[in-house]
Amino acid sequence: MYSFANDYSEGAHPKVLDLMIKSNLEQNIGYGNDIHSDRAKEYIKSLIENKEAAIHFIPGGTHTNLLAISSFLRPHQAVIAADTGHIESNETGAIEATGHKIISVPGKDGKLTPESINYGLELYSKEYRPQPKMVYISNSTELGTIYTKEELTAISELCKEKELILFLDGARLGAALASKNNDLDFKDIANLTDVFYIGGTKNGALLGEALVIIKDDLKEDFRYLLKQKGAMLAKGFLLGIQFEALFKENLFLELAIDANEKAEQIAESLKKHGYSFLTESCSNQVFPILPNEIIEKLAKEFSFNIMEEVDDKHSVIRFVTSWATTQESVDALANFFEINS
Amino acid sequence: MYSFANDYSEGAHPKVLDLMIKSNLEQNIGYGNDIHSDRAKEYIKSLIENKEAAIHFIPGGTHTNLLAISSFLRPHQAVIAADTGHIESNETGAIEATGHKIISVPGKDGKLTPESINYGLELYSKEYRPQPKMVYISNSTELGTIYTKEELTAISELCKEKELILFLDGARLGAALASKNNDLDFKDIANLTDVFYIGGTKNGALLGEALVIIKDDLKEDFRYLLKQKGAMLAKGFLLGIQFEALFKENLFLELAIDANEKAEQIAESLKKHGYSFLTESCSNQVFPILPNEIIEKLAKEFSFNIMEEVDDKHSVIRFVTSWATTQESVDALANFFEINS
Amino acid sequence: MYSFANDYSEGAHPKVLDLMIKSNLEQNIGYGNDIHSDRAKEYIKSLIENKEAAIHFIPGGTHTNLLAISSFLRPHQAVIAADTGHIESNETGAIEATGHKIISVPGKDGKLTPESINYGLELYSKEYRPQPKMVYISNSTELGTIYTKEELTAISELCKEKELILFLDGARLGAALASKNNDLDFKDIANLTDVFYIGGTKNGALLGEALVIIKDDLKEDFRYLLKQKGAMLAKGFLLGIQFEALFKENLFLELAIDANEKAEQIAESLKKHGYSFLTESCSNQVFPILPNEIIEKLAKEFSFNIMEEVDDKHSVIRFVTSWATTQESVDALANFFEINS
Amino acid sequence: MYSFANDYSEGAHPKVLDLMIKSNLEQNIGYGNDIHSDRAKEYIKSLIENKEAAIHFIPGGTHTNLLAISSFLRPHQAVIAADTGHIESNETGAIEATGHKIISVPGKDGKLTPESINYGLELYSKEYRPQPKMVYISNSTELGTIYTKEELTAISELCKEKELILFLDGARLGAALASKNNDLDFKDIANLTDVFYIGGTKNGALLGEALVIIKDDLKEDFRYLLKQKGAMLAKGFLLGIQFEALFKENLFLELAIDANEKAEQIAESLKKHGYSFLTESCSNQVFPILPNEIIEKLAKEFSFNIMEEVDDKHSVIRFVTSWATTQESVDALANFFEINS
């Protein structure tokens, strides 16, 4: 059984694991104040060309989202997100559990636009509704799409104008920046957002997301909040070591490029047979629309997710690739469609 | 510099790391539904002789504490803890952040007694105060002491009588059960409490605590709460693998026995020179009372924590040992006291 | 200027005020444990023919909603409501501020149906989304519509089948039960819901809602929660006195019948001139669709709310009546339309 | 039975009730935006000589406390209070329910001192404990004592130095300012604190507390928070009317002076018979220490609270007076002690 179910089925990339093994018996300071975390932060600061950024390593994505949102908003404030946004549809109410409403607005292929944000602002403009104060976007999105520089700039400008905090969920930031369609780099992300994170879990690490706080007045006391929400690991160096390995050289992007290329191969082999897609495939997620009978056959050899029905006879499914996806499995999939289309 | 600062300075025990390495490229199901987690749960269930227990792996101790307390209490209910309890003094208000008051009562060497619990119940018996509904204890405690079977039984019986949930923080449960003074085993812990956890972070794992829910009506829907509080890791198998390694055979207790023996050697070398202690040393923490000038010298060669002043000239310090503590460092410490006492 | 802006512009109905005046210098026990509150509860229990109901008086509607929802749900549970529901659109995120997501589903004229509830249940059926555990409906709704016995029974049965708590917001329950189209009585409401409230503020009282808890396991410790959320007034008898006055005899329904009749007169005078309505007018709220130029003129003599644009030239407005609405003002409105249509 | 149990046994002072009656059928704007609220705010602003203060009327004291504390603190911040403080001992965990720890420090006769505040600051100075950011004091205190100008100034200066918000609970501010020992006025209170409130419930109103926000950066968006926590009454004018009546002329202080004089008479009649007191009686609460047998007799004719045992044979009880306390009842009490001492 080849798995295209997600990008977190395996452990760490061997180079990440190597550094963990090598430093396993070192004595490091606890709670993220260790030298590996320091180094990883320096690498990231260099990459974004911002020495004043505040960086914190957090075990997982939901944890990062709830921390950022609950730390930066006052109790009456809400966050605008696309209806497909991870915080809206995949986190068991984690954000509401911290007291904040998510203002869910229609996305376009998983992305927010200035129009959709303005729509949310208009609906939530009176004191009898929560006050929108943050915009949450994901790059790449839950539908595998990515923001162009023009799109992100437009959102960034609107947020500045309306005094909204722009928060970018980068659980799959690697996949976005490694996309062939991408025209953003780390520096742009840092310049255009107030806070964002770089997902390690889905791109080479065992676990860990690097939250990067750009806006000055969001930086204060963040370690208190990390600790309070259970996100400050005793062995915080475990996260530092992994980000050190990913960012010392170019490993983080290399892994993402590799994953995207595998996804592209998959998309190509599907296009060849005339299949259409829910969204344009440009990162490590591919959402083909397939006949149900093909899906049924496919499920005997491959694992993947069925997303939704399109009509009586067709459904959208999802293939996800990662650094751990083998060429063999991609070829097997191509072969399957050769035979079954 | 030899470190006795804590029991989380190094990575994972080599045998734990080995299983991580071996299974690194396996494709595992996400979110803790993997085979390693299943196996680890079976090992623990066998050990406690309770096949109905619900077990969940959680990244860290504060996270586990806030999850257990907020999941099991209604909004108006409070938890009774010793004034030295970890939730009261070391978690940045994590419990209050979930809406619950900690009723802090005087402990005895870090332990609660039926008397101290009853004191809390009397003070909090009216509707204008929160309702005590849970008792939180740690074993071993923050002061390195442990509960005897008689003591734990007395608390357990009181809790049953008063319909209080008994929750045992086992961040250092290994150290407790491996103590020479201990007369409890895993089965007793499971029989005498409603919910407890087994700390991996401080006894061989990179990270991870195994929450064991015994009381039936506390089990329902716990995975929702894990997810909501950011504690359900995508690569949950990472925790399962480690607990599998620790509990497949007897590694967990072996590591704790080793750590305790090192602590005992340290305590003996101090007693030899006539030093007294804040509490009786019986697990992996030793709290000697030393002259400040000795402490000053000591700090040049060893790292440790200074806990509190005893008088103008003496302070309590803390030495902590772990599976990673070397005999060499223990000997160096003994040697230091030979020379400096 | 005649006001049809809402049903809370004046103080208390004179008969309610009279009892307040008469008992003003009595010495009453605090915190709702007084004899007036007891009497009011007895009257309501008789009316619903349920001597075991637990009744609590709460200052306002949002306060009642947030209390009921946060007291009865566990942290990971959510409440299903119509998109027009008061908790969704008019309470500044009060429910989310207690940690719970509102699952907003499309209503039909402000009402939920078994279909819409089932839709919410299907969307929220996995552990990565909050668990639906309560259904929130209003009677009369925010659009002035009411539930028939058949409709409420269908919802009630679905809730029982799916183990959902059915909570009825009765901020305007008087208006619903006094409607000419109504076939429900207080007893039905109590039989078909798990918890509901009877709105005093909008029907004769200065302030106060009577929360009636029918389902046994929701009753426990509710006074703790009242107190904790700031809803237990020192002079709780103030609420008891008013509900005593409203329910000693039939005043509560009489006032609502009077308000509804005024609303009906308004609706009739509009129908006469051929205007249509957003929803069928059957309680104390009327939602005519009027030409914008008429609305503009109207605003010079009457106060009311503009709800939404229908097209370039027409908008929906809202007229609300109450026990305090004078026949003079209703006639003036009829006269206005005579002249201006 | 004469009641000295508390200062909230009766309704409103007749002059307050009169204005409610007079304005009962007026049509007022809802949600506190009415002319009576405006007037009341102007009266209070004049009294404190601060035209920029933001004033909000809130139904009750616990509600006001939880609103002020949760609105002004970030999630990791805590409030320092005396162990006898109302928020610590009488509000069913209302503050913790909003997520914030109360740092309880020993008070002196119910009052905080710079020493006790500094003690709290020292204990809570590290990131593993919540961050003290607010100081909560009551005037008069729960033990009937009051702050002198010197004492309040010292606390105010410390708070400025340490960047702590100083919040004064004035549920019994009238009793404090009307005390014979008092040297503070409303203006001083406003100058020396960042936020405080003026209690209506216990001094002439049916219900209502006036929260006065002095510090500029605490003012923003407060109405959102009022609404979200259920504190914005539809008929908010009900609170405005009462504060208008209390502050149009000098009624508020007159009522408090009258209550204090009655308390003084009670204290004098007790001193005459040689009884001692828990605290010096200087406001409307008297805390005599009486033989238990006297207390038993007393309870047959008077209602009052028994606070705590002093020894086997003596207890502290509490007498409370208000504007509604009759001279007859005070005389009856004096007479009782004549006969029974």
Number-wise, the strands of chain A total 14
Oligomer: homotetramer
- Can you count the helices of chain A? 14
Counted up, domains of chain A total 2
The fold-level CATH name of the largest domain in chain A is Aspartate Aminotransferase, domain 2
SSE string of chain A, helix = H, strand = E? EHHEHEHHEHEHEHHEEHHHEEEHEEEH
Describe this structure in words.
- The structure is a homotetramer of 341-residue chains.
- Chain A has helices at 14-22, 35-48, 61-72, 86-89, 94-97, 114-123, 149-162, 173-177, 186-192, 222-228, 237-248, 251-272, 292-298, 327-340; strands at 2-3, 54-58, 77-82, 102-105, 131-138, 165-169, 195-199, 209-213, 276-277, 285-286, 288-291, 302-303, 305-309, 314-320.
- By secondary structure, the first copy, chain A, is an alpha/beta fold.
- In chain A, strands 2-8-7-6-5-3-4 form a seven-stranded mixed beta sheet, sandwiched between helices. In chain A, strands 9, 10, 11, 13 and 14 form a five-stranded antiparallel beta sheet that branches.
- The first copy, chain A, is globular and about 60 Å long.
- Chain A starts with a strand and ends with a helix.
- Chains in contact: A-B, A-C, A-D, B-C, B-D, C-D.
- The B-D interface holds B 75-76, 78, 89-93, 96-101, 127-130 and D 75-76, 78, 89-93, 96-101, 127-130.
